[in-house]
Specification:
single chain, alpha+beta, Alpha-Beta Plaits, six-stranded mixed β-sheet, two-stranded antiparallel ribbon
Length: about 140
């Protein structure tokens, strides 16, 4: 699903925003059925993001400190060479895509126009060191 909000392209995984379709019910299902489920956000930078990011960074970091209890992990994404920031990753402890969208829209990076597009994905951590093994 694509939509334009405040000059930003907002992209969501199919069925995660909008009317209550069967896909939407499935997305809400994983978020409501599993206590460890949350929402992953991939935000890709705008072409001129470096200057915007630098100007809003102090306010962005202060915001993250205020909402840290909602953030499971977050940070900048780098290009393949590891030198240039190309976006942001958030994994949030929220139970709806709408809550994740509200979280992002309150971030000073959003108001500064750092991101060209933002994608939201309900997510169930199922395996790995961060969760201490597997859920099965």
């Amino acid at each position: 699903m694509r939509g334009l909000q405040g000059g930003f392209t907002v992209l969501a995984a199919a069925g995660t925003l909008g009317s209550a379709s069967s896909a939407d019910g499935q997305a809400q299902g994983v978020l409501s059925r599993h206590a460890s489920a949350g929402v992953v956000i991939l935000a890709h930078d705008a072409a001129d993001a470096a200057a915007r990011r630098a100007a809003a960074n102090e306010a962005h970091l202060a915001y993250i400190e205020r909402v840290l209890d909602t953030v499971l992990v977050a940070g900048p994404l780098y290009g393949r060479d590891g030198r240039e920031i190309v976006g942001s990753l958030y994994v949030l402890d929220v139970k709806s895509v709408e809550a994740a969208q509200a979280f992002i829209e309150a971030d000073p990076f959003f108001a500064a126009g750092v991101w060209a597009d933002i994608r939201y994905f309900p997510h169930l951590p199922a395996a790995g060191g961060w969760i201490g093994g597997t859920i099965w």
